[in-house]
Amino acid sequence: MIQRITEQRPKYSPLFILATSLLLVACGGGGGGSDTPVDDAPVAMALSLSAGKTELKMGDTSQLVLNVAYDDGSSQPVSASDLQWQCVSSAVEIDQNNLLTAKQSGTTDCTANWQQLSLLVSFSVAESSVVVDLIRTSPLGPLTLTVGAQQTVGVFAHYSDDSNTQISSGLVWQCDSDAVSMSGERTGQVGHVLTAVAPGQVTCSVQWQGLSTELQITVQQVSEVSAELSLSFLDHLKDSDQDLSRFTAWVERAVAGNPGYGFSPVDAVYLYYLTADERYIQHAITLVEQQVLDAETKIAEGQRPKVSSDSYLHVGRFISELAYTYAYGGELLSDGQKLRWRQYAEQAVWNVWHHKEAEWGGQPFPWSGWAVTQPGNNYHFSFLKATMTWGLADKNEHWLTLLKEQKLPTLVAYFADFEGGGSREGTGYGVAQGNLFDLYRIWKDATGMDLAGRSPHARQTIDYWIHATTPTLDQFSPIGDQSRVSFPRLFDYHENLIHRAASLNIGSPEAKRGKWWLDNNSVTEIVYGFNLHTTLLAQESEPVAPTDLVYHSKGAGHLFVRSSWQPDATWLSVVAGIYDESHASRDQGAFSLFKDEWLAVTQNIWSHSGIHQATEVHNTLRFVENGETVRQNLDAESSMDYQVVGDTTTIQMELSPVYGKNNSITSWQRDITFTADEVMVFDQCVISSDVEAIWQINLPVQPEILADGSIQSGQLLITPMVPAAPDISVINWVDVNASEYKNGHYKLELSGGDCRYQVRLNVL
Prior knowledge:
alpha+beta, eight-stranded antiparallel sheet, five-stranded antiparallel sheet, 14 helices, Chondroitin_lyas, BIG2 domain-containing protein
């Protein structure tokens, strides 16, 4: 609890007091030790706690951050070294860096002193009954490494409340062979680095506080690793009674001359591998030969072939079709065909990584180089797939070395630092991570190197999508561009994504929850034949229902919370994190609310194109300067944290960085409290006098202003609390853009809040 300034201000609920940073009594005058400002310098008026928890359990830590507010409306953080803390008991301890540690159960008042100002904060510490059940390594193993390869291994403690934390110290490692060596924590990364030294079988054990676990490791010579484009992932089907009739019929239809939409020669190669029926590989050869002939015709005409369209977005599909057919049908190709196919594939892959010097048939065709250095982007997955499949099929040491030494280490490092799974491209383009997981499978089958096991991202992406799915299990959170279809309904692509992620992690808790999701969502079976190939992957067989009600992906900057796992639960999604992808929206601070149907959601899902990124279409605070909406800054990093107390989840967002390049917007914090029947949204910001802050919410149903000042939209009741009587505007999106918005959907705007809003949303 924090003592407030004693001045006239609107009355807030206790939740608001706990969830927001409130100004406190200033003991004395202004800052700088003087009662009189000099040269119109701003006067320090009050301290506030801008970050840190006041309710903790024994052993918890919390980083405290204090701000000082000045009489000109500005504020800035106070250096920890300038603060002095005094606490009346030893329940908590605050060090010189403002790091608070909960030491004993109970409550205590602590006073922070800075110059002539002081701040009183009450902390409560509860006893913790949570104990460590076991420890485990990440990756879980068994691992297969080649001599000279390195693998970072983390150790996690699993607690009785099903939470997990990474252990950073006190670990004791012991391996029963010198085939591997284990170093200490890598600089800047928690975890031990395991280096494969010599061939052999190794068991490494790790102990921590009386608990232990083991990691099995196989070290192979490089020469023992099959660097081939392998289809061994299909071997489990050869002695299986799995029904392949739909996939077989899909391929047979194509061989008969009537291919379905999206048919790929790779499907025919798969069935050839399983049956040895030469009809299938011959059909694949025919299709790829046509691809090469079409490309040669374009090149002869002085044009670029189709493989280079849309900044080489589809190069992975085109070249992997050629690569698989080349690898498994090479004996049926003439020497002339092999040479032509190889020249075409080589040029395509070379052009990807040399965009400024790209050429076709000796003519220069430079292109933008879009996403060649962006490992989290869906284009990049396509570039890697072309390089990987062709490099393996051709046993091309140049491309394999490029992958091993540059591209794959960069990819692994990016996702190793991506906590929580998912994608910063959002949920529309983020589904393309199925292609990323396909890369992991291809590389592991070919080399034995488990790229997926080097970070938790693939496993965590399973949980990400489970929680991003609405309680009705038929829709998902519409974050970012939704270009395939605007409305966020689950489809084959989402099934494929989880098929691939779960197949890489069979036996893990995440894969078991993924199996539950696959069994229970609205996609009862894959609809389109071109998506059937992922049903051939080995899958987890044991479904386990999820239990966690909150999921936060810090890497993606997305949080999902629901009241239960029943279909009629209330569900909320929130966005606050790193904004650095072109398919992401300017929606930092935005939320969507669902119960049985969408109650409040981005207007993008009702649009024709599904690619509206502007702040206007999202449920967030919008800033207007000189009549124009101020754009959120790309490459900015907001932050978000949450606490759960009983049935209430409180989400705190620091959104100031997204406007950091605009001197007219100094700060913006948004807090949201969530329960099954009520959501409270709190906003406070500091802006210049020529900027207006507008609170906005997009609604599927036309809002009606009631006699008491509240607004009803379908099953959602919206009650402005601060200000109690704001200016209200209702916008019909058809009036804004009739070609994009065919049906009436609406936006409610509240203004006049003087950069402070409190709005209650009741689910009726």
